[in-house]
Design brief:
mainly alpha; Non-ribosomal Peptide Synthetase Peptidyl Carrier Protein, Chain A; 2 domains
Length: about 160
């Protein structure tokens, strides 16, 4: 029986079978156990509570967050309404995004994603402008070498 089973192997499974040590498989139970140990990896089941705890990471883009959440949702065997899924997404976004989206109703994830991408872009541009403003103010400051007493004296006498 084991010899017939081995005839069904192709590619990776055939390679695995061909390099097994001689007499390492004694019966069909051994074959099943070894085969499962090598090729079967059960998927972890994800529950709604798990989905509700998936937070958007700092510096994680909305697209990356939604893809990670979508991947986990595919492992969840519980069906729930799309608007509830959208609420989970919004509640677990970074604070700046969540505050701007929490009062809106989203039926489809596509709507939510489009709005989140616009807000994310605005936040990014705002942060960039603030950084430029802060750098601009620093350009007017004089840099003093603390190790040079002469340069400090020159600064003081010039004023």
């Amino acid at each position: 029986m084991l010899q017939l089973f081995s005839l069904s192997f192709t590619d990776t499974t055939f390679t695995w079978y061909s390099i097994l040590l001689p007499n390492s498989i004694e019966n069909s139970d051994d074959m099943e156990r070894c085969f499962h140990d090598r090729f079967y990896s059960p998927q972890l089941e994800v529950f709604v509570a798990d989905l509700m705890n998936i937070k958007q990471h700092v510096n994680e883009l909305v697209v990356e967050y939604l893809e990670r959440l979508r991947h986990m949702k595919s492992k969840c065997h519980v069906l729930f309404p799309k608007d509830e899924y959208a609420n989970i997404v919004v509640r677990n976004m970074q604070c700046q995004l969540m505050e701007k989206m929490i009062l809106q109703d989203f039926v489809y994830l596509g709507q939510l994603m489009a709005k989140a991408l616009k807000i994310e872009q605005c936040v990014h541009e705002s942060n960039h402008k603030k950084a430029q403003t802060n750098l601009g103010g620093m350009q007017n400051m004089s840099i003093i070498d603390s190790n040079s007493k002469d340069s400090l004296d020159e600064e003081m006498t010039a004023k």
